[in-house]
């Protein structure tokens, strides 16, 4: 089983990229499970026609913890198995603790043994990497971390913090850095800035995505681009990213 996490600053497009990676790998016949680790619980919406699914924390509160996998794991038309960790009631509780609760609940219910996914993708909010937000990096969860960034200063700053966290965890047998995914925003010297960031952490840019009208159009329709416009240049770039990620994680 291949397990990796996609991190990145809020709004950088990591969920769009994660959903398209999931859809692209599922189209190859792989069983893919995507787990959204963001309190907004919108990680998998592009795989569900724009709709949101009940979250693990929703069901924990609703059933007092007495729920089944069928209550929190939803299979899409493309075959991707989707889970959303969810978050606390706004203003109450810790979002990071919610992620810990959700991932531990999936393990306790035997999700990985029941569904036997070939690929597990954790889509994680990554402005800061602390507490529960670092959970997918820990031993037994993701094996590789991929960081989405643009050439914009704050995006690179957040990406550097994530990469630094991965480096700090390295001695504990946690996930290792798989590479940088560049989501271009059209700023000057963007590719050079991404390459410099990657070099600072002894990694490289494993794929890039150009700005395109295909992206907001697909999001408005609630669809992954690799499914809605499979022959577009954007879809081809996303499929190439999916192939690179899969190969780096040991897929054949």
Automatic annotation (TrEMBL):
Stated name of the protein: nitrogenase
Tree of life domain: Bacteria
Reactions this protein catalyses: N2 + 8 reduced [2Fe-2S]-[ferredoxin] + 16 ATP + 16 H2O = H2 + 8 oxidized [2Fe-2S]-[ferredoxin] + 2 NH4(+) + 16 ADP + 16 phosphate + 6 H(+)
Organism taxonomic ancestry: Bacteria, Bacillati, Bacillota, Clostridia, Eubacteriales
Essential cofactor(s): [4Fe-4S] cluster
Gene3D superfamilies to which the protein is assigned, alphabetical: P-loop containing nucleotide triphosphate hydrolases (3.40.50.300)
SUPFAM superfamilies in the cross-refs: P-loop containing nucleoside triphosphate hydrolases
Record-level Gene Ontology MF annotations: 4 iron, 4 sulfur cluster binding; ATP binding; metal ion binding; nitrogenase activity
PANTHER family, alphabetized: LIGHT-INDEPENDENT PROTOCHLOROPHYLLIDE REDUCTASE IRON-SULFUR ATP-BINDING PROTEIN
Family membership: Belongs to the NifH/BchL/ChlL family.
Subunit structure: Homodimer.
EC assignment: 1.18.6.1
Role: The key enzymatic reactions in nitrogen fixation are catalyzed by the nitrogenase complex, which has 2 components: the iron protein and the molybdenum-iron protein.
Keywords: 4Fe-4S, ATP-binding, Iron, Iron-sulfur, Metal-binding, Nucleotide-binding, Oxidoreductase
């Amino acid at each position: 089983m291949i397990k990796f996490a996609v991190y990145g600053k809020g709004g950088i497009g990591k969920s769009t990229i994660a959903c398209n990676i999931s859809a692209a790998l599922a189209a190859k016949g792989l069983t893919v499970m995507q787990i959204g680790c963001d309190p907004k619980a919108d990680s998998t919406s592009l795989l569900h026609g724009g709709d949101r699914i009940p979250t693990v924390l929703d069901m924990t509160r609703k059933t007092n913890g007495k729920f089944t996998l069928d209550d929190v794991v939803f299979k899409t038309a493309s075959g991707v198995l989707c889970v959303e960790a969810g978050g606390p009631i706004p203003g109450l509780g810790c979002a990071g603790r919610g992620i810990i609760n959700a991932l531990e609940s999936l393990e306790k219910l035997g999700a990985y043994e029941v569904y036997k996914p070939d690929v597990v993708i954790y889509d994680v909010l990554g402005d800061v990497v602390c507490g529960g937000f670092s959970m997918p990096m820990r031993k037994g969860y993701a094996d590789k971390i991929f960081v989405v960034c643009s050439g914009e200063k704050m995006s690179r700053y957040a990406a550097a913090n994530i990469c630094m966290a991965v480096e700090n965890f390295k001695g504990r047998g946690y996930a290792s850095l798989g590479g940088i995914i560049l989501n271009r925003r059209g700023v000057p010297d963007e590719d050079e800035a991404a390459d410099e960031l990657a070099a600072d952490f002894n990694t490289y840019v494993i794929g890039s995505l150009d700005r395109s009208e295909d992206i907001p159009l697909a999001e408005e329709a609630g669809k992954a681009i690799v499914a809605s416009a499979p022959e577009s240049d954007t879809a081809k770039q996303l499929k190439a990213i999916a192939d690179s990620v899969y190969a780096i994680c040991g897929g054949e």
